[in-house]
Amino acid sequence: MDISRISTGGPFEERIGYSRAVVAGGFVFVAGTVGAGDDVVEQCRAALATIGKALDEAGSGFDRVVRVTYYLPDSSEFEPCWPTLRETFGAHPPAATMVQCALIDPKYRIEIEVTALA
């Protein structure tokens, strides 16, 4: 099986030792991704932009995402992200899960992980 790895050069990729995305077995597995911003919606948009770049590099896109997991330290901040998520996935909503948990740094309000068809 061919495996290709995609890096976006983010600081955690090298420090922790992981790839932003891995293409294998007909799927694109995008690692949990955070984004910069002053609030959860800005961070959500920034994380989705990074994910979108990884999907593009893998020859995929948001219309091919089959699974998404959202991680938030405060579940009450999830609802403000819904319009951005509906806009991103449009007519192709994936299966989804939201988990309330601590993130790597308290400044982050959301982390997003996706699996897409290659």
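That was protein one. Protein two is written in the same sequence-then-structure order:
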Amino acid sequence: MSEVKVEILAESPGVAPVPSSLVARTILVTLPPGSPGAPPHRHPGPIYAYVLKGAITFELEGSPECVIRAGEAFFEPGGDVIHYKGANHLDDEESALVATMICAPGLPVLTVVSQEELEARKHLRA
């Protein structure tokens, strides 16, 4: 019989306790080959995510675009920070990630940012 293996995939220091008025919502995001993902948007709370398969081209306000590959985890603060890109980096296969978001019950998973706001905040983009 083999032993159970526990591996830390990511750690986010300074995370506060979650008030009982909030929920932890876990979602599965599957992106078809070549998908650009959602337009620029915000999430209602912080997100802890893990790429299950494929690779995701990822960009948050204030950070350079990067590629997050299967087996890698990431943190997104949510709130006021704009999520510019969450696209499938691969043109020939599906990519998928699982994410847990901390937020108030009933809020949408994401809210699209208007073109006017994108223009007003363009100086904050890396």
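The two ends are 50 Å apart (CA to CA). Keep this in mind for the problem set.
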